[in-house]
């Protein structure tokens, strides 16, 4: 049986930054990503990308409910990889 694929902290930050059109270091972990310009279409694209990479925990409704990078990292990145 294969192990589940996970995405790393850097991957999530880089993907969010790319969706916003900024450098990864410009995305504060406590910022509201909706206020930063992330719309639902971009969020759906991120969710699809992460789910395609094997991150089954990537869920549009969960991430949309709290559009803050630090909250997303808690959901998407296993504690042993944080």
UniProtKB/TrEMBL annotation:
Taken from the record, one Pfam family name reads: PP-binding
Annotated InterPro entries: ACP-like_sf, PP-bd_ACP
Tell me where in this chain the Carrier domain is found.
3-82
- Which superkingdom, per the lineage? Bacteria
Know the name of this protein? Aryl carrier-like protein
């Amino acid at each position: 049986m294969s192990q589940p694929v996970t995405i790393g902290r850097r991957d999530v930050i880089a993907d969010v930054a790319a969706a916003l059109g900024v450098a990864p270091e410009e995305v504060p972990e406590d910022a509201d990503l909706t206020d930063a310009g992330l719309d639902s279409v971009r969020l759906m694209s991120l969710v699809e990308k992460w789910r395609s990479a094997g991150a089954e925990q990537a869920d549009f409704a969960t991430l949309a409910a709290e559009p803050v990078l630090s909250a997303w990292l808690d959901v998407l990145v296993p504690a042993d990889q944080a």
